[in-house]
Amino acid sequence: MFGDAEAYERFMGRWSRQLAPLLVDFAGIPDTGRVLDVGSGTGALTDSVARKRTQCELLGIDPSQEYVAFANSRNAYPVRVRFEVGDAQALRFAAGTFQSCLSLLVFNFIPDRNKALTELIRVAKPGGCIAAAVWDYGVGMRMLRSFWDAAVAVDATASKLDERHMPLCRDTELEALWKRHKLTQVTQRPLDFSMRFASFADYWEPFLLGQGPAGSYVRKLDAGNREKLRAEVQRRLELPRPDQPFSLPSRAWAVRGIVAAR
Ligand SMILES: C[S@@+](CC[C@H](N)C(=O)[O-])C[C@H]1O[C@@H](n2cnc3c(N)ncnc32)[C@H](O)[C@@H]1O
Q: 195, 170, 153, 175: which is closest to 16 by C-alpha?
């Protein structure tokens, strides 16, 4: 029933669930009012806010009906948390509805990011916090970096798909976007943690699930080229034993700002 959502959880949700508390701590949002999770996906960030802030009401919006249904089905806080279908670029809420708006691993995927941020500022209260984070796809997010470096080494045409070209994934880019809008006290920070894999199979097999640009690329390879890529990724990771646990560092860039008085 939730094939895509479950695949997302296995590929990325398990890491966004580790990143989410770091964004909540960095955002420093008060435990009051309504909180909007923009691009809530399978619910990682909403869940983390609900754990850390026990008084606020939370709403997650996402264009994917399946993710919304999955997140509602796993909702551990049904009284004060819910998820609905929505697009950050055209929010249905009145001005000043939310005390805080948060977004995890989403802004790089939104076609009109200026429109989305303008919408978040509109639906937030003056003095409210708007915070977001995006992976450092170019360097610091080693799980994907190792994958794309190997992909480009075995197939030069993969270069144009390499997620290093993602918007807003480098130092100061999210900050610059926030500073172009009606936000004060804008600050940026890297969020770092370590991704722990049980084995090389635990690293590699989620790439076969068709998730994100990397999963889509793998899906299109024939069996021979997929095996070539698998071997190259494993070689580059330099694991002493592929059946042993290992860790990769991971970095996302986070930004926060306060909605200026209107
Ligand atoms: C990488 S996932 C992140 C999901 C979740 N926040 C997490 O951290 O696990 C990107 C999400 O952005 C959502 N998304 C894409 N375009 C969007 C838009 N215009 N407005 C809101 N969400 C959007 C996708 O549906 C997807 O759930």
A: 195
Q: Where are the alpha helices (DSSP H) in 28-73?
A: 44-52, 65-73
Cα separation, 139 vs 241, in Å, equals: 25
Distance 228 CA to ligand 1 centre (A): 31
28: left (phi over 0), alpha (psi -120 to 50) or beta: left
Q: How many CA atoms lie within 13 A of 14 on its CB side?
A: 12
At residue 202, what is the residue type? D
Residue nearest (by alpha carbon) to ligand 1 atom 17:
110
Query: What is the helix, strand, coil percentage profile of the chain, to 5?
Result: 45, 25, 30
DSSP state of 166: -
Decide if pLDDT at 1 tops 80. no
Domains of the chain by start residue, with CATH: 3-259 (3.40.50.150)
* Backbone Cα Rg of the chain: 19
For residue 197, the SS3 value is strand
The structure's pTM equals 0.97
Q: Does any ligand 1 atom lie closer than 6 A to the CB of residue 45?
A: yes
- 225 close to ligand 1 (CB < 6 Angstrom): no
pLDDT tens digits, 112-158: 999 999 999 999 999 999 999 999 999 999 999 999 999 999 999 99
Quickly count: other Cβ atoms within 10 Å of residue 197's Cβ.
Answer: 18
Longest pairwise C-alpha distance within the chain: 59
Measured by CA distance, the residue closest to atom 27 of ligand 1 is 41
Place of tokens 């996402």: 62
* Nearest protein Cα to ligand 1, atom 24: 39
